[in-house]
């Protein structure tokens, strides 16, 4: 997304892979280069990453003729073998280049850092659901994070087709159990005193409950992938609840210049009621009836984007989005620009980089250099603020959008080409199926805060 998202949005980028191989036309002609081109990004469409492979056929023939080392008896056989090799070389080169993200032009290229190819790496472990991204964003106890990471690895192991590594899965669960048992006091000590009782109940459930780690271990031993998937989801939900108890507020101090801005010191839930602008209905869910209005719920994360989330939640409380019209493109659902509404604050671009302690302000991330946000845009139903009409260093005071992530319009690593450029502050957790049915002209009849009012801080009103 090279331009700011404002009242108009352009979100289209189709990466390409071009492969061309041309045969020899004469015995004196070299094999033409085999080229693979990858557009770098939207702003650099003219730049391509090229791979060139040269033929060795002529050099081999010249060497043979120069030294006369093969008798005539074997020349016919050798020419036949060489012609076969001529057809094999392009196939081998194509296979080798498609198998490796690195060029084969020289040994220096092997020194390229893998982080620079992050857009094209199929192994990039970016959250693919809002629930996973939100769970990872909670600033919880390091022991709980270790348990969470060990369990989340199982979700990747479950994707392996046919023979799944159940032994490795079992080892992951046992590792999580050991951490939970050995670090029990540390885990419970991180929970505020008024939440200790609930924390102990969740800890007990995680250890021995119906959806806990022991139950997950039994599912793995039964080698039933469906049961493992369900048990894993249940265990991770309990982990997330424990994490939230340990993170009652912000874990960092805001920059002094932003202390007078509204802020959200935790999580909040906002519910939108959407109506069709043309009087039609939303398609029913399985076994349901057509609906004139549909409901969408969004979890807003103040842990990673306190200023952006705070401004948004304050606007919801003030009723700013009631009757707001929606505009749609193939990759986003954008609210109107709010010129006739009460404006919010001109919030700086706010992005928490993965592995960092606090957000960056007025700074986009360089995904090409391996920087990734804690709250990625590359998730269907991500919610983010549009750019200010005057500067990409600031978000629009009022205008937000739902991102309709589509892997067909992303890099080979599954990252959006707009990753790291917008202030993402939450995800759609209920009603994701509704997003695809929203059309330009549909209306937000109401937006209300259903949870998190106590975490909204408005300094000028306190």
UniProtKB/TrEMBL annotation:
Which terms are listed as keywords in the entry? Answer: Isomerase, Thylakoid
Which Pfam families is this protein grouped with?
CYP38_PsbQ-like, Pro_isomerase
The keyword Hydrolase belongs to this UniProt entry's keyword annotation: no
Q: Which Gene3D superfamilies match?
A: Cyclophilin-like, Oxygen-evolving enhancer protein 3 (PsbQ), four-helix up-down bundle
What InterPro entries does the record point to?
Cyclophilin-like_dom_sf, Cyclophilin-type_PPIase_dom, CYP37-like, CYP38_PsbQ-like, PsbQ-like_dom_sf
Q: Which domain of life is it from?
A: Eukaryota
Any GO MF annotation of the entry: peptidyl-prolyl cis-trans isomerase activity
Domain PPIase cyclophilin-type, residue spans: 281-462
Designated name of the protein? Peptidyl-prolyl cis-trans isomerase CYP37 chloroplastic
